[in-house]
Amino acid sequence: MAQRRTKIEVLNEKISKVDSKIAACTEKIAALEDEKTALAAQLDEIRKAEKKAKEAAELKRLLKLMHKKDISVEDLEAMISKEA
Length: 84
Known about the structure:
mainly alpha
């Protein structure tokens, strides 16, 4: 005949199950934090690339304007120096 478990044994088993669930959730949280860190790094790289692309576009526009107005780099430096 099967021996009946005491209330203490039942509660200890339940506590053990909860501890196991907590451990599993802790592992999931750690994995999610790693994923978040990786995604944040990717986002940072994209933002840096966008900033570089914007700067390159601005430089291209400036260079086009300088060629259109027949302004050399030295002329531009002289103009800026006069204003400073």
